[in-house]
Amino acid sequence: MNANGQVPAAVDAAATSAPALVVRDLEKRYGRGDGAVTALDGVSFEVARGSVVGLLGPNGAGKTTALKSALGLLLPDAGTVSVMGVDVASDPKRAYRHVGAMLEGARNVYWRLTPRENLRFFASLQGLPQTEARAAYHDQLLETVDLADRAGDSLNDFSQGMKQKVALACTLARETPVVFLDEPTLGLDVEATRNLRERVRALADEEGRTVVLSSHDMDVVQAVCDRVVIMNEGRVVADDEVDSLVGLFRTREYAVTVDGSADTVRAALDGAFEPTAFRELAERTAFEVTVPDDRFYDLTDALRGAGLQVSSMSAVEPDLEEAFLRLTERGGETPRTAERVAPTPGPEGER
Ligand SMILES: Nc1ncnc2c1ncn2[C@@H]1O[C@H](COP(=O)(O)OP(=O)(O)OP(=O)(O)O)[C@@H](O)[C@H]1O
């Protein structure tokens, strides 16, 4: 719950049932002629209300350009964005009332004010009255970023990391239904990172707010996000639940140990599979092998045919980092695996 004990920020009538964020067919090129860079090449995705969605991609994938377009800070060449049902291009002020953003490199806080004064200031800009409940909410936010004991000190003496924490708390103090966080854990220490993870989940689970999070920290993304949208070279290459993306690769890579030599394994599998990471143990050989779903029994048959007895076989547990690397490793070309996770048109389920 927020300072009012309810879902924050009044939502206007047009916005009552639309998804929190709808991005449709966004295109953006920077520059002209030979030097032009295509930053967004037909980007579409939706974010359901009350969910936490990670926007991921390697450097230059177009994440910041997409977020800036969603905030109306940048005009796309084509496509539309709506926030809580409000079209950003035709009604930017109304759309902006629904969204708070902390963009990388833009830490807009007032150095002469204290953290508590900053929070009050950003809340009042949003038209939120100063109540006791709101003051208590601000204390909670300062706890989250581990600055409760510095709440009354001037920011002038704060380190960069501390100012960033204040900026994060100020973004949340606007109590907007949608929050964009660009690299929110950059520069945060372990304790503050853990608090932030919990706070982000609480924003969605307890306050019903929607968070779009861009981060290179896959542990954070895997821990807090319901879904991820992965971009590469200006396109969406995956849009799915975190568990599904990780699961895409779950049954594919196996760690195998057989009774027999590495040479026998190579002779049995080479040409048909690509065994790697060989380790010869006494009388046994351990190796890893990637197997397409429909060829698992070809693998076991080939080993058995060579007289090799399998003493252990386990799926190598992938994580989001592994999924991310596999989905983006092939440059601009959409990876084959992503065809299974490409976004399907149609509304997201409301939570
Ligand atoms: N103002 C600009 N002028 C020219 N090219 C730009 C500009 N801003 C971004 N680009 C280019 O557009 C592409 C997408 O950049 P963008 O910053 O959106 O990517 P990103 O995914 O946010 O990357 P990062 O993770 O490094 O922040 C890149 O090739 C980048 O060089």
Describe the protein.
- With 351 residues, the chain is an alpha/beta fold.
- It folds into two domains: 13-247 and 326-340, Rossmann fold, CATH 3.40.50.300; 253-315, Alpha-Beta Plaits (2-Layer Sandwich), CATH 3.30.70.120.
- It is 31% helix and 25% strand.
- The protein has eleven helices and 14 strands.
- A six-stranded mixed β-sheet has the order 6-7-8-3-9-10, sandwiched between helices. Strands 2-1-4-5 form a four-stranded antiparallel β-sheet.
- Strand 7, helix 6 and strand 8 (210-214) form a beta-alpha-beta unit.
- Helix 3 (115-125) packs across helix 4, helix 3 runs parallel beside helix 5 and helix 4 (132-144) packs antiparallel against helix 5 (160-173).
- It is elongated.
- Residues 4-11 and 330-351 have low confidence and may be disordered.
- The protein binds adenosine-5'-triphosphate.
- Residues 30-31, 37, 39, 57, 59-65 line the site of adenosine-5'-triphosphate.
- It holds the Pfam family ABC_tran.
- One of its GO terms (molecular function) is ATP hydrolysis activity.
Which sheet architecture does the biggest sheet show? Answer: 6 strands, mixed
Tell me the distance between the termini: 16 Å
Instruction: Work out the count of structural domains.
Output: 2
How would the global form be characterised? Answer: elongated
CATH class of the largest domain: Alpha Beta
Order of strands across the main sheet: 6-7-8-3-9-10
Structural class: alpha/beta
Helicity level, as a percent range?
25-40%
